[in-house]
Design brief:
Elements (H helix, E strand, L loop, with lengths): L2 H10 L11 H22 L2 E2 L1 H4 L1 E5 L8 H12 L3 E5 L5 E6 L3 H15 L7 E5 L1 H29 L2 H25 L2 E2 L1 H28 L11 H11 L1 H23 L5 H33 L3 H19 L48
Parallel strand pairs: 1-6
Antiparallel strand pairs: 2-4, 2-5, 3-4
Helix pairs in contact: 1-9, 2-7, 2-11, 4-5, 6-7, 6-8, 7-8, 7-11, 8-9, 8-11, 9-11, 10-11
């Protein structure tokens, strides 16, 4: 068995582990700091919306163009009077995006570009996107995101409980905010591919969170019938028992996305790959972080505010204090065995030593009454 597999088995059985829930204030602070940075970046720089959302024209040149990106940007801006975005694709062709142009302007820009690039005008492909169509896409994207959030909260509230649904919702908002903020800071263009990437990472983040929640739900069944663990301690054991699985799935998912981002987008220059791969890469990493460090610790905070969980924690601590005073090892220190709610440790102690037997009804039979032998 590999070292990682051995570690996973030891984490699953509670032999080793890290106290994520105890140090939750540290993770909350890190998340708040990152989220504030993302919000500031979004407010200061804003999102660079693609022409699919604001309307404009896209010109694609033939393959193996010798003109540089910067020079082509200058020609496009001079011809249109608007800012232009030029990307060199993997086959050597140029993709020129100019926002705020109509059909008449597009024809004139195409003629000017053909002269500057020394390419016949008929070999330059022009696609126009109207602003109304872009607004429609944006509205549909927001509607889809809102419906997704509502359905997720309802499902988690039914399958688990409302506290877990609330924690998962907070984690999703956390992931979206960080991803959108990094988009604003990096300056990547927001396209329909970006929206697809955002919806994809939300599903992945939920998958990782639900795995931990399912383990937590199973281990906290009939939790009030024992005095061995508090809710926070069982929540921490749930995180540790699924930790290696979460790390493995995250790494396996990030590897191909990193290939899209750094090789497909960076080396080959494929514009659409940049848009979708950045949102996937940042969102997958943020989702894995939030499912471990945010969602489950937040559930523990919400649950331990309940009167039943407060009473349970009080009983657990009292029992440990009593055992410590007697110099005994507390049950909570014995991390080798998993928690089992079906075997409460408050059972009555077994009777040890001689027991008083009831008098036999046949005692003295066959003896003369009142006489001794």
């Amino acid at each position: 068995m590999s070292k990682l597999g051995t570690l996973g088995a030891r984490l699953h059985h509670g032999e080793v582990g890290y106290d994520f829930v105890k140090n939750r204030k540290i993770w909350y602070g890190i998340s708040i700091l990152i989220t504030i940075t993302a919000i500031v970046g979004l407010a200061v720089r804003g999102l660079h919306m693609g022409i699919e959302f604001q309307g404009g024209a896209v010109f694609t040149t033939p393959k193996n163009m010798s003109a540089s990106v910067s020079q082509t940007e200058t020609w496009a801006e001079d011809a249109s009077g608007h800012d232009a975005i030029v990307q060199k694709l993997g086959d050597g062709s140029l993709r020129i995006q100019i926002a705020g142009t109509d059909t008449q302007q597009s024809d004139q820009i195409k003629e000017d570009l053909s002269k500057n690039l020394d390419v016949p005008a008929e070999k330059i492909n022009a696609d126009l996107v109207g602003p109304s169509w872009g607004d429609q896409i944006a509205n549909k994207a927001w509607q889809g995101l809102g419906i997704f959030m509502v359905l997720v909260v309802i499902y988690l509230a039914i399958a688990f409980e409302w506290r877990m649904a609330l924690a998962a919702f907070v984690a999703l908002i956390h992931d979206i905010t960080i991803t959108v903020g990094i988009y604003a800071l990096v300056g990547f263009e927001v396209t329909p591919g970006t929206v697809i990437g955002l919806l994809t990472i939300l599903g992945y983040s939920l998958y990782d969170t639900v795995v931990v929640f399912d383990s937590l739900k199973e281990q906290t069944r009939d939790i009030t019938k024992q005095t061995r663990w508090t809710y926070a301690e069982i929540a921490n054991r749930s995180i540790n028992s699924t930790l290696v699985r979460s790390i493995n799935t995250t790494v396996v998912a990030l590897l191909p996305v990193a290939g899209l981002l750094f090789i497909g987008g960076g080396v080959l220059g494929a514009g659409m790959l940049n848009d979708i791969s950045l949102s996937l890469f940042v969102g997958l990493a943020a989702g894995a972080y939030s499912s471990i460090f945010i969602a489950t610790p937040l559930v523990a905070d919400l649950k331990e505010a309940e009167p039943q969980m407060k009473a349970l924690k009080k009983r657990v601590l009292a029992k440990r204090a009593q055992a410590a005073a007697k110099g005994e090892t507390t049950d909570s220190a014995a991390d080798e065995g998993a928690y089992d709610a079906d075997e409460p440790d408050d059972a009555a102690p077994a009777v040890v030593g001689p027991r008083d037997q009831p008098a036999s009804r046949g005692r003295g039979r066959g003896r003369p009454s009142g006489k001794r032998r």
